[in-house]
Recover the amino acids of this structure.
């Protein structure tokens, strides 16, 4: 769907084959684990068997004595960090905590916490050596639940954590606590708002700990050279932040570290924080040889990711005719071992789809004995959306209002002041609801008993940050484009297409490459739905730089003043009908001074945020509680879709991750804090047999802050699914699910409770 | 450490001999000994399907096959799917249908699809979804993969009719 | 005058005022202006001359990319918000 009539672009909106495609379907693409270097050693990390324990002693002598072992490292091999925060692109990070996460200092804070690492001639020897490292632990009581961890007598994980209350601490307490941060937003008069409501609903929700679930495990290969320079080959969402984290952790200059991006097998936010590069670097420093470390799947589950489990309470007041008068939200998110859950964005997103006058939001970031939480696609927003969108649906049910109409009535739009303060610029929330309402899916009738339909909306900010692109014009009319945004889902092509559009050439004429940190300007992470937006702007700027230079070259060839020459429609036009295409001019570059290289950066632009509304039909098996997703439609404001296939792919992939979060996915812990399902068999992500086709409606409300109207698309599609499915389950089975995942046992319990109440 | 064994296989049509420890998996030997890194490792316990190869035409997760078990077998990996510089219909269909995002699961899906289409040249959507259920993809939501497999089936049948 | 939206947790320092009007051409000047009217606010927003870790500034509806140096118009709104990362 296009709101701006017929397409005005030549390249944007088309579906060229991705530039790295052939390498990826023939097995030639080199991912992190595929690196081969002469003299390569293999590293294995020893991990804690306890969720919470003090490390009394580590004796590595037996491991070091094993034939084939070349080095063993512990936290003692990582320089001390002191008490410092370092800005790492997406935000400031406490280096002591990051360092203690990479290799535990005096305490282990979750099962799977890295304690030591071995480099050996092969992985089998390294594994055997790990078993010979003697670690004496003083086991401590773990705390695994967000609300229990907030209690005054809870076991405390970190001695250095105090509650940050907007730069201050509560006067009462200078004791260590698990509650790392409190957030409060208020707007209007909440009490008056609830007093004006005809219906006031208050509901409590729980969501489980879930993992990003990328198929490629974390990996890093490091070579610490005799000259002190370190090279790291790895798959990462951000080569520059990986470089900085590695340098800061090893206390060496950033310029001494080069990160070489390998192809990356999925990230979703989980491959931004470093785990292995400092370990591999420390092992390489000790051995003088390159060391490769790859996590196994259980380590990926137990020691990386996850996104926080949460407790959320929502109170919503609505008038009889369906206007929201007030909202109150309380959110507590599990940070895992160290502070830093996405509680901020969670609080900012909880009411972000709506426009109402009175609101209060209170949020807490809470440490528990689980892995240090990390970003996962719209971090913090999905938990909040599950809660608010379920309450909205129940209100609609009570008042007999169509849930799409309710959202059209109360939905956020340009000019609305958010609960956290800022006013929305041009956004497409209402357009996505209208698209769902008008869809054949929403208009259709359900086919049978035990079926139900639900809708839900979601919001994510999308970030801007910094990117750089360099493009070189070849004499044959080709362009090579280099960028620093690692390509997780076809972004090479979406960046190349924006350069091609600007130059008026084809996408195929551009050859994009993702290069290492020594070879391209600083570029922030592939995350936050920012690459097609911000690296796209850098590519457009590089193309404009090329245009300016080509105008001068053409003027020289034509012997006219450059001011009389313009770059238009894929070529240069001059006085008296003079005209050369890009390609013709490229052929003449050698005689006008040689290469033309365009540079572009972006760093100031910010995005307007994206909304999606999803519609889902489910069938609930009343005997087993199993939920089958029958039909699924995603409507999302995608700004301008550069490569529609890959935009659809983001919507489909995000929706299915959301379906997994809704129905299956959850870390199961025993009472000692040991994860009992750290395999794909037991931590069950959706298979293709679990889901239907995912229909997409691309609503295009261009973001005015991008020359072509690009809006980030990657994150928001994970937000609505849990609530949409919960609402569909309510319609199908008459039970309101308030805990994720909505697994068969939980649905059966709810059905039995429903029947008992009758 | 047990004594190393000599194993002979046919790999993508060519006879290959290698030396391996009894504890080494076919996946490890393919990747580390024979340098065939197109086959990917996602979980090393047979759950994700990224390491799927064909052994005597049958799809197997090569992380669950000991290299010594492959003695005498014909092994086909993703590197052996294209015919020279001509992509196979399934590879072409994955490209045209944007059926990959990060691409780490793609080799496994391509091998599983090769096996499916050899067995059943005209699968229904349901049959495709059932046959590929052991291959995990976290990026695409499977929509475009399933469509690409159906499209590859059409392409193969059309090629056979020619 | 720029309109500074006071975060709920430090409104005890602004006598409960949610919005304070302050003169200034940059965020830094506005914070100094705020501090002179309502002492103690600066320390809650800044540390070592920088915005506190974990916070971001939004000027009108955009995230400020130049931190405390971000320039503001006479009628700009200034917000102090939790920093956002992405996935």
């Amino acid at each position: 769907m296009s709101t701006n009539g017929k397409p005005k672009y030549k390249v944007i909106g088309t579906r060229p084959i991705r530039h790295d495609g052939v390498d990826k379907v023939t097995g030639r693409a080199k991912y992190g684990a595929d690196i081969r270097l002469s003299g390569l050693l293999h590293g294995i990390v020893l991990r804690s068997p306890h969720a919470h324990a003090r490390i009394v002693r580590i004796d590595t002598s037996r491991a070091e004595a094993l034939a084939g072992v070349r080095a063993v490292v512990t936290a003692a091999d990582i320089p001390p960090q002191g008490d410092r925060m370092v800005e790492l692109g997406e935000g400031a990070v406490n280096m002591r905590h990051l360092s203690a996460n990479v290799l535990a200092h005096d305490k282990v804070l979750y099962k799977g916490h890295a304690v030591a690492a071995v480099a050996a001639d092969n992985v089998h020897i390294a594994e055997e050596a790990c078993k010979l490292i003697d670690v004496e632990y003083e086991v401590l009581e773990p705390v695994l639940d967000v609300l229990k961890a907030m209690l005054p007598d809870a076991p405390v994980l970190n001695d250095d954590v105090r509650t940050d209350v907007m730069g201050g601490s509560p006067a009462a307490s200078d004791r260590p606590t698990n509650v790392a941060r409190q957030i409060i937003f208020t707007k209007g008069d909440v009490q008056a708002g609830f007093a004006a409501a005809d219906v006031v609903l208050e509901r409590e929700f729980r969501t489980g700990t879930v993992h990003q679930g990328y198929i490629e495990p974390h990996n890093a290969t490091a070579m610490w050279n005799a000259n002190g320079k370190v090279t790291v080959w790895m798959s990462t969402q951000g080569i520059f932040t990986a470089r900085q984290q590695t340098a800061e952790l090893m206390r060496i200059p950033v310029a001494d570290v080069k990160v070489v991006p390998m192809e990356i097998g999925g990230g979703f936010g989980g491959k931004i924080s470093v785990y292995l590069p400092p370990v591999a670097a420390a092992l390489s420093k000790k051995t003088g040889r390159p060391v490769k470390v790859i996590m196994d799947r259980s380590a990926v589950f137990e020691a990386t990711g996850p996104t926080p489990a949460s407790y959320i309470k929502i109170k919503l007041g609505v008038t009889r005719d369906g206007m929201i008068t007030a909202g109150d939200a309380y959110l507590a998110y599990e940070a895992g071992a160290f502070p830093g859950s996405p509680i901020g964005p969670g609080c900012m997103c909880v009411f972000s789809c709506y426009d109402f006058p009175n609101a209060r939001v209170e949020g807490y970031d809470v440490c528990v004995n689980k892995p240090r939480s990390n970003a996962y696609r719209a971090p913090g927003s999905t938990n909040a959306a599950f809660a608010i969108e379920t309450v909205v649906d129940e209100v609609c049910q009570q008042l007999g209002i169509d849930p799409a109409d309710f959202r059209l009535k109360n939905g956020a739009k340009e000019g609305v002041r958010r609960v956290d303060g800022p006013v929305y610029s041009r956004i497409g929330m209402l357009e996505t609801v209208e698209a769902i309402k008008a869809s054949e899916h929403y208009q259709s009738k359900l086919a049978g008993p035990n079926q139900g339909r639900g809708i839900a909306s979601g919001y994510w900010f999308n970030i801007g940050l910094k990117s750089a692109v360099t493009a070189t014009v070849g004499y044959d009319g080709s362009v090579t484009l280099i960028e620093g945004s690692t390509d997780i889902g076809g972004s090479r092509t979406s960046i190349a297409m924006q350069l091609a559009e600007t130059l008026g050439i084809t996408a195929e004429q551009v050859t994009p490459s993702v290069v290492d940190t020594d070879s391209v300007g600083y570029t922030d992470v592939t995350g936050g739905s920012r690459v097609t937006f911000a690296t796209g702007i850098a590519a457009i700027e590089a193309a404009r730089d090329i245009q300016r230079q080509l105008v001068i070259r053409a003027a020289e060839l034509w012997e006219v003043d450059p001011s009389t020459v313009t770059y238009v429609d894929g070529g240069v036009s001059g006085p008296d009908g003079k005209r050369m295409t890009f390609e013709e001019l490229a052929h003449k570059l050698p005689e006008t001074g040689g290469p033309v290289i365009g540079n572009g950066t972006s760093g100031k632009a910010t995005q307007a945020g994206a909304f999606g509304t999803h519609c889902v039909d489910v069938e609930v098996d009343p005997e087993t509680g199993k939920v089958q997703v029958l039909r699924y439609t995603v409507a999302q404001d995608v700004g301008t879709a550069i490569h529609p296939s890959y935009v659809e792919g983001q919507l489909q992939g995000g929706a299915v991750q959301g379906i997994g979060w809704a129905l299956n996915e959850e870390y199961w812990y025993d009472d000692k804090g040991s994860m009992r399902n750290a395999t794909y068999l037991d931590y069950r992500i959706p298979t293709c047999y679990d889901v239907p086709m995912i229909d997409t409606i691309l609503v295009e409300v261009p973001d005015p802050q991008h020359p072509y109207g690009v809006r980030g698309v990657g994150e928001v599609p994970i937000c609505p699914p849990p609530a949409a499915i919960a609402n569909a389950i309510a319609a199908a089975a008459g039970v309101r699910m308030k805990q994720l995942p909505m697994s068969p046992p939980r649905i059966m319990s709810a059905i039995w409770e429903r029947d008992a109440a009758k | 450490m047990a004594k190393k064994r000599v194993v002979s296989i046919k790999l993508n049509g060519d006879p290959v001999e290698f030396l391996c420890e009894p504890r080494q998996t076919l996946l490890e030997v393919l990747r580390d000994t024979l340098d065939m890194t197109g086959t990917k490792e996602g979980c090393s316990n047979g759950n994700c399907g990224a390491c799927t190869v064909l052994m005597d035409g049958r799809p197997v997760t090569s992380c669950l096959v000991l290299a010594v078990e492959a003695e005498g077998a014909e092994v086909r990996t993703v590197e052996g799917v294209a015919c020279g510089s001509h992509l196979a219909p399934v590879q072409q269909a994955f490209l045209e249908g944007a059926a990959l995002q990060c691409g780490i699961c793609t080799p496994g899906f391509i091998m599983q699809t090769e096996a499916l289409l050899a067995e059943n040249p005209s699968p229904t959507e349901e049959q495709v979804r059932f046959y590929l259920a052991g291959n995990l993809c976290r990026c695409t939501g499977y929509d475009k993969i399933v469509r690409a497999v159906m499209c590859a089936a059409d392409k193969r049948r059309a090629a056979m009719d020619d | 005058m720029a309109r500074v939206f006071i975060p709920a947790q430090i409104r005890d320092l602004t006598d409960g005022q949610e919005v304070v009007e302050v003169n200034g051409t940059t965020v830094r000047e506005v914070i100094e202006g705020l501090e002179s009217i309502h002492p103690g606010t600066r320390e809650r927003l800044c540390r070592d001359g920088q915005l506190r870790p974990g916070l971001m500034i939004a000027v009108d509806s955009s995230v400020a990319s130049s931190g405390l140096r971000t320039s503001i118009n006479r009628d700009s709104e200034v917000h102090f918000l939790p920093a956002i990362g992405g996935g």
The first helix of chain C runs from residue 27 to 37. Chain C has one domain: 2-82. Helices of chain C lie at 27-37, 41-45. Residues 13 and 38 of chain C are 6 Å apart (CA to CA).
